[in-house]
């Protein structure tokens, strides 16, 4: 008789001769649970003392997703290799030592800070920049390419002041620039690039209004190598009109909608149906209009974006090849083309699988990526006898992901334990079940006798659901329901249908710190940063409930330097929206706006990311005074416009009323008397009062 039958029949004491009541405490011969995936099976031959850090590294695939920046040291702690493969043994940084220094009380020589903690690693950031540049330099040299590579960093990936300033400083020797997608990002980039290489590109992407374009033209006037990329056809008219008014000759780029489409999760904005960019028909109209106003020489850059996290070089080659053909056509049409901007898409390997069939992995190296891009552009241009363009990329994820580690505590753990099942108590309970539930139990017992464990699960689920329904109807008591729960849980456990998973409570907010996890199901490596010289005993689930307990266990989330802080805080530095309070009214519109609060200004959101708007403005002021050649009127006008941009909201200004603009410029909020809206005349006049918050 199978052991499962012993478990079930214990309830009614119908035991064949020679069989005892089988319970876990009695050391029964129950079937062993299914081994946990990824965790070495328990064995009497594998003692904890035989475990090693190298086995932990293999278990968590650290060499797969973490190389060459993360490894397990001899102490069983996770360490950082700040210079990648060139890191010497004595240069490795033990993450646990960082945690101890940061969290220890000041009296013990620590900093007295509370976790969770983001550890930034500028050396890793510098190495990522150098590695990307070296990969393209190698491809250019080995293929005899006739131009060079110079990338830009898309600020939206992580707008933190020190991250952006580090990138500008580290990238200055090879003209590495910045990409902005909103007005506060543009202000940020302008300020930072004043201290960078004058040849570094400042790429202006995103939807644009007159203020955005005026800022970009001001940047051009400040001797910054600025390119205004047209995302919509109608932006061209603004560029033409404003450049004439400000007497600035712009450099213009076009974002093309390619037919090549990234089919993965991150490819939703790619393809000819994407929301950004111009179709071939629109590109031709732009060329004709620029020719009509004698500005075709201003068109110098072609931009496109296949999608983030491009999984394979085959897709990359297809997209770059298509774009290169458009570039050659623009040259043929008379544009003074100089740069092809391949956008983002350089992916990283989140799970270490090196797979080209996954949204969280990539099947290529930096060298493969660079070689594919250079080859695709070179072949297309050579076929058309077109001079090789400068190659630009907007690689953000690949630059900043590795340099940031989020460390948090697992402060308690819990496991679900099935209620104890007493054979004679259960017999009494079962006898009191309604007929249908008792029949389910009999079927469960018979299936166990036959050793049909899949059928056991079916009848156990059926019994449990029937009892739940009867409990809701009031025909079953709580004691009976609990007993049936215990029996069904025991059945599942003994045939290996339930993993013995522990829940670890971590002192962290997933919503705030890892927004891509709950938002799009993005996977990040989460690994213990210490005790990796000890054999893990089972699988765990992390629960972000704050709990205080003795015995802390530190974990690290890796590869989260791109987007997680920006999305959790201020993606694209757009800040929060304005807030209005609306009440019903007897006036002609049937409602009244009784309070309106403007959202954060560009100045506000920049300050949140540790930038100092006052110092940024002073930097731009000094540059303006240097560039206007004594023309104080021009300098004053430019600075006034710049100051307004700091004070205004980041969002586009579309048909703004004088009322709302006054609210923004005065950094206050509006209120009006609700009673006034009961008077139609007062409502039509829209009489507002300004109040101080």
Helix content: 40-55%
Instruction: Please count the beta strands (DSSP E, at least 2 residues each).
Output: 21
Radius of gyration: 32 Å
* Strand numbers in spatial order across the main sheet: 5-6-7-8-9-10-11-12
Number of helices: 25
Largest sheet: 8 strands, parallel
Task: Write down the overall mean pLDDT.
Answer: 78
The shape, in one word, is elongated
Question: Would you write up a description of this structure?
Answer:
With about 700 residues, the chain is of the alpha/beta class. The protein contains 25 helices and 21 strands. The strands form four sheets. An eight-stranded parallel sheet has the order 5-6-7-8-9-10-11-12. Helix 8 (about 210-220) crosses helix 9 and helix 16 (about 455-475) runs antiparallel to helix 17 (about 480-495). Residues about 1-45, about 545-550, about 575-585, about 590-595 and about 655-693 have low confidence and may be disordered. It is an enzyme of class 4 (lyase). GO terms for molecular function: arginine decarboxylase activity. Pathway: Amine and polyamine biosynthesis; agmatine biosynthesis; agmatine from L-arginine: step 1/1.
